[in-house]
Amino acid sequence: MRRRVVITGMGAITPLGHSVDSMFNAQLEGRSGVGPIDRFDAQRFPTHFAAEVKGFDLGRFVSDPARWEHSGVNSQFAAAAARQALEHAGLLDPDHSPADRNRFGVYLGSGEGVQDFHTLLSLIARSYIVEERRIDAVVFGRGGLSEFHPQREAEQELHTTPGHLAAHFRLLGPNYNCLTACAASSQAIGEATEMIRHGDADLMLAGGAHSMIHPFGVTGFNLLTALSTHNEAPAKASRPFDLNRDGFVLGEGAGMLILEELEHAKKRGAVIHAEMTGYGSTADAFRVTDSHPDGRGAITCIGNALKDAGVNPEDVGYINAHGTSTQVNDRVESLAIKQVFGDAAYKTPVSSSKSMLGHLIAAAGAVELITCVEAMRRGVLPPTINYDTPDPGCDLDYVPNEAREKRAFHALSNSFGFGGQNVSLVVSRFE
Amino acid sequence: MPTQEEIYAKVSDTLVEALNVDKDEIKRTSTLQGDLGAESIDFLDIVFRLEREFGIKIPRGELFPESIFQGDPEFVENGRVTDKGLRELRERMPFANLVGFEKNPEVSHLSDLFTVDLITRYIEGKLQNRN
Amino acid sequence: MAAPSRRSVITGVGVLSPIGQDVGAFWRSLQDGRSGVHSITTFDASALPVRFAGEIPDFDAKEFVEKKDRRGLKMMARTIQLAVAAAQRAMEDGGVDKTKLVPERFGVEFGAGLIATELPELADACRVSVNCQPGRVDLEKWGEQGLSAIQPLWMLKYLPNMLACHVSILHDARGPNNSVTEGDAASLLAMGEAFRILGRDQADFFLVGGAESKINPLSLVRQCLYEPLSRRNDAPEKACRPFDRNRDGLVVGEGAGVFVLEEMEHAKKRGARIYAEVAGFGAAFSPNLQGDGLARAIRAALKEAGAGPEEVDHVNAHGLASKASDEWEARNLQEVFGALNTPILAVKSYIGNLGAAAGSTELAASVLALHQGMVPATLNYEEPDPECPVTVATGAPRPTERPYVVKVGFTQMGQCAAVVLRKWQQ
Fold first, then answer.
1. Cβ contacts (< 8 Å) between B18 and chain C: which residues?
2. Residue B73: which of A224, A288, A392 has the nearest Cβ?
3. A363-396 per-position pLDDT tens digit
4. Looking at the whole model, is its pTM more than 0.90?
């Protein structure tokens, strides 16, 4: 009998609020968190809107915000969401907590820090020998040594976010970070679940944090023409499964969960919000950005997660889709769901939180899994907003525009990343 | 104004670099996806390189229109492009030779329109308009 | 902690390193005590306080990729090319017939780090976007003119998940796929995870390892700012001195180490040559080089392997060669191995610190050692440091005497990993 894993705490920092409750309530109201970019002057970028986290103050969440002074917002969001999750689980204080901190690990799917755009770019311009189309490494080196801020540079490294959380909250078990693009935090939650099942830890802080709403991030996605260009109506831009979708909308934030071995949770009298029952991870092994047209990787992935959970498709009461609002993803995801679910596909409500939150990239999966847990707990499913014109290629029940009351016992959350990594998670009501 | 032969030669060179194929693999009729192995992001790369090579600006979606039939469900029926869809196609891609496609307008065959010849004709038109 | 009923063995090794671009050359350099640390040749480093590194000379990714797949190389930064090359070498070394593998049971997992942009790619865009304010860029100009001067696929070349992504595409590996981004501990953590996935029957075959190249102007400037680098510019080969009293910091290196790791019955069925078994894994956190995290990770891994410290032939150390790091490591090793005088091998003395590739590339030395029955020595260990109570093996290679090897790796922030290898016996 394998060890069972339950969710005993959750926290979120999102464009729709700085707590799980505010984020979920806003989704039930069908509110959009998308608007013009405030963080920097993006007016002349082809796409200049996003779903930003507004009014965030780290000092409200942690006792020593100075630790994160030179960190990117990704790390700061992570700290705030982790603090919420630990408090929610009653595990915040290491000195008065009924948990062995050596058996309490961290697994994040957290993004990179934020590059010092202005310093780097003006330095490149100064070092550029135009005629030879090359960089003068001496000019660049000298300038870099005097102009870059050492800690700010160090904080961009990918292991700093889980490192800060482990040090600050004294989580001394296994520590991991994975960065599998848009699937990252789902993969982190899946692997963290496996670590508890195997006995590598009794508790894991799992989730993700990311922000690519900075000049480099917005540049990169604009160049790939992956973003919606509905600049005239940002709140209408993210329209998953709608015929007139034209790309995804960047979001940012963090979602964190406390995963705990069932007997451990029972023994300390923890409130159990749901059970982690299924995890599937596959690769398309097809192309760098194109999904496989038949949804080959996604089909195996969803199938593996359901099998791991021991749940039949007709017993899944809700699917929180990857639903990015790109032409290809939404069609292929719908196709994959139909392949795995058969006739049950048409009876299973599917919605995309990205219609409201935008795409939180590495953090997306964690926030969407939290959405699944809340939907089951409260008996109401969040809608897909901006769903106006059906697409013949996407013909499932997308919970259009209005939340719906429904008791679900099992929920499926999909995350498919650039590069072909697919992750599906199943959460179930705890019985 | 370069001749069509000269344009074709430069287009071929661009594709050699963008797709890492040998020059002798490239023919006028070669399809970018089927014959030369391009995937969708390669189209972005090809446009970028053509702009530099010919000193022109290629607006997004002009040479390689994305999701042409999005926006009107009547453009496609049972996997085939309707007359209305074909009219749209002619309007969006006046530089394309649609004779073959019109005989059997399966949506899945659409990618066969994107040939080396199509790019050459597009560039030729672009350069003519500039003069 | 129950040992998995399914056992995992290493059947292929691919190494791209400053001391050899294949397993044979790598092993010969280790036998001969030849360092790969030299003055930097790929760019003019004269403005930097550190002007040497463990470089891979004349690396050409085209040699490692079939012609039909070369189109992908333009989307790969050097780090990703190194990963692809080492994966190819591992498959060749393992004598793997790809057509006989089940794609859905074939996983890929890499340790990866932050990949710096190649500066010339942004140079035209920067030039049109500077304004009169020093240190600032005009974002309006950048948006309007700068963007169209950048290669549209720019970002894809630098995403850390692209190591595993490209490898999965090239080898049609459709099973579990992950990219662990935990600094210098990344590739050992990736190995541990792949070992777990094989153990729980979600794959039969893995390409697992790490790759990293930080020898470029931007990455090296950054490391000069925040890493304790050795400044021994006058004697690069002597610069990396793990546990030596006169060590003065770490040395930057580049490379990739990738293994074919497969379930034992699967390996036997295809008649594979087995180098060694991965017998145990442990991970822990120890904030800022304080506490016993590394010792806890080692104990967990040994326990899983069912081995005692006295059965360990040698410890393949992290051996960063910075003052504080080696002291802390030595104390943690002493906590586990006490007075056993277990010999220490520190591969960084040959190649420098390969970052995300460090753990797996260094581990390759011990995999080969167990297989060949000979352990290489550590370079540049001349004067013992009383603050580092460990026995570092120097001089000539010596025969192996015991069946287990412990490999450790960690970050300066505190992420720790330990892998235990068992000598393969029929």
1. 74
2. A392
3. 999 999 999 999 999 999 999 999 999 999 999 9
4. yes
